[in-house]
């Protein structure tokens, strides 16, 4: 069947053969482009991201979808310390028939840090609350979404950075109401790349592409993203440390 753009990916309601809601678990929420790089040691960062356009593999292009993979807006925050960085993501969802929000906590560990390249391994766990009244179906569910993968950032001069993140994730639905014992799990593969400009004074601007594929469902989604962030030191750092996040 052809899947509709609303309520994209969260829950599809089939209307043939008397079927009920088809529950498809959300993966973890996206991170805005300027927060894809690791937070340097001794720094704190806050940012906002926007997903204005999405090209889905099943239903074409959806401007400002509102529900897609956690909504169009994300708020990010993080800190870096001794080769680690800890980040949190919040992404609200709201439309005429769907409501909810997504959350994610991510931790990264530096494996290599040089003047031009930094390599990390990252892991995290997301959570989604979702409720819908789509086509008179009244239900709600909670989903969990752990994920793991590598992250690498390339510095192209003092003001330009290109971060790349690849993740494998799994998500599982926990029914809350209106679904009975209905539950589903899904695997996700995601890749994100961005170009980030650091104009100075702690500010960063960026844009990127984010690809999500589910091996369990006929689903592919390519999203255009924009973001902005502000970074400030939490302690005094040396020039070398500030340049590549060294300890």
Descriptive report:
By secondary structure, this protein is mainly β. Helices cover 2% and strands 62% of the residues. It has one helix and 13 strands, in the order E-E-E-E-E-E-E-E-E-E-E-E-E-H. It has a ten-stranded antiparallel β-barrel. Strands 1-2 form a two-stranded antiparallel ribbon. The longest helix has 6 residues, at 239-244. The model is unreliable at 1-19, 58-68 and 238-244 (pLDDT under 50).
Describe the structure concisely.
The strands form two sheets. The protein has a ten-stranded antiparallel barrel. It has 247 residues and is mostly beta strands.
Globally, the shape reads: elongated
- Based on helices, strands and strand pairing, what is the structural class? mainly beta
Number of DSSP helical runs: 1
User: What does the radius of gyration come to?
Assistant: 19 Å
> Helical percent range?
under 10%
Ends: how far apart?
Answer: 53 Å
What integer is the average pLDDT?
Answer: 81
Number of strands: 13
Report on the biggest sheet: 10 strands, antiparallel, barrel
Low-confidence stretches: 1-19, 58-68, 238-244
Range of strand content: over 45%
Reading side by side through the largest sheet, how are the strands ordered?
3-5-6-7-8-9-10-11-12-13
Order of secondary-structure elements: EEEEEEEEEEEEEH
């Amino acid at each position: 069947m052809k899947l509709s753009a609303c309520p994209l990916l969260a829950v599809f309601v089939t209307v043939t053969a008397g079927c009920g809601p088809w529950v498809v678990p959300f993966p973890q929420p996206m991170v805005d482009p300027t927060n894809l790089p690791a937070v340097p040691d001794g720094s704190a960062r806050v940012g906002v991201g926007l997903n204005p356009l999405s090209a889905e593999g099943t239903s074409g292009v959806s401007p400002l979808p509102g529900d897609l993979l956690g909504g169009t807006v994300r708020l990010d925050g993080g800190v870096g310390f001794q080769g680690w960085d800890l980040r949190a993501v919040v992404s609200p969802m709201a439309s005429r028939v769907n409501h909810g929000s997504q959350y994610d906590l991510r931790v990264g560990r530096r494996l290599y840090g040089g003047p031009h390249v930094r390599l990390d391994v990252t892991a995290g766990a997301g959570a989604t609350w979702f409720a819908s009244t789509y086509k008179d179906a009244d239900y709600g569910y909670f989903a969990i979404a752990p994920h793991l993968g590598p992250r690498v950032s390339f510095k192209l001069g003092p003001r330009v950075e290109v971060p790349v993140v690849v993740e494998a994730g799994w998500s599982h639905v926990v029914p809350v109401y209106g679904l009975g014992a209905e539950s589903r799990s899904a695997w996700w593969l995601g890749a994100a790349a961005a170009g980030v400009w650091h104009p100075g004074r702690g500010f960063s601007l960026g844009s990127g592409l984010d690809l999500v594929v589910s091996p369990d469902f006929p689903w592919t989604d390519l999203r255009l993203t924009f973001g902005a962030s502000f970074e400030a030191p939490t302690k005094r750092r040396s020039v070398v440390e500030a340049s590549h996040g060294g300890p």
